[in-house]
Structure formats: structure tokens, C-alpha cells
Amino acid sequence: MTWRSELYTVLTVSDPVDLSKLLARDYWLVLSTPVPGTDQAAIDAHVEKHVAWALELERAGILFVSGPLLSGPGVGPGSGATALRAADEAEARSIAAGDPFVVAGLRTFVVHRWRLNEGSVSVRVSLGTGTYDWR
Predict the structure, then answer these.
(1) Average pLDDT of the chain?
(2) What are phi and psi of 32, to 5 degrees?
(3) Which CATH class is domain 24-116?
(4) Alpha helix stretches (DSSP H) within the chain
(5) Model confidence at 122, in pLDDT bands (50, 70, 90)?
(6) pLDDT tens for residues 30-82?
(7) What span, in angstroms and rounded, lies between the C-alpha atoms of 78 and 40?
(8) Theoretical Cys-Cys bridge with 109: which of 12, 32, 99, 104, CB 3.0 to 4.6 Å?
(9) Number of other residues whose CB lies within 10 A of the CB of residue 96
(10) CB contact at 8 A, 64 and 23
(11) What 3-state DSSP class applies to 64?
(12) What is the pLDDT of residues 98-111, one digit of tens each?
């Protein structure tokens, strides 16, 4: 057993949880799946446009987090997960449809409304540009 699994087995809830204090902030989770026949060479041919698109969404305050899926059922070149700030599902779908991988016909996507409740963040870090700011 690793130290993490040992930690998970000893965690207990000793105090009541105040559910009213959960963040309860909604985002739109976009899960992208490569279309059959998409290979790494096709992804590589469009990755710069895809990253530029994502960084523009980040600059505009639309992109919360994004990145490739590396393992799991149906994962292949072009698989990814993205959380967007959008007014509604239609807007999230419109944003996701502009992904250069989607425009090139390399992947499809599904959109889920996702409620963020738990976790912690103390600094805003741009993973794509290596910049940060304190909040």
C-alpha cells in the first residue's frame, strides 16, 4: 500500500459538513473524442492552431482548464477535457465547435453542465504561457 492509499483509508468525517458553503459554481465540461481513423500525425498537423485557440479563450476569461486525456475508455490521439465559462449550453457548444480539431473533422464532443463544489485554488497560473497573478 502506498502512503496515499493509506491516507485515504484513514480519512473520516468527524464534523458535520455545511453544504451551504460549497462553491456551487457551474462550468461547461466539454469531453472530446477522436473520430475513427484520427492518428497522431493528424493531431500534430493542427495542434498549434488548437493551442492558439485555447490560449485566446484563456485570455478572454472563457477557458477554465483544458488538456488531453491520456488514458481511459476510448481515449486516443485528440481526446481531451475542457471546462468553459459560458452562459448556457448553446454558448458552450458554439465555443467547442470552434476548436480547430473539431473544425478539421478530427474529433467530436459532448457538453455537460458541471458544478464545481470542492477543491482549492490560491494563484491563477496560465499553463500555456507560464504567467501567473495573485488573487
Answers:
(1) 90
(2) -105, 140
(3) alpha beta
(4) 3-10, 40-59, 89-97, 100-103
(5) confident
(6) 999 999 999 999 999 999 999 999 999 999 999 999 999 999 998 999 999 99
(7) 8
(8) 32
(9) 21
(10) no
(11) strand
(12) 999 999 999 999 99
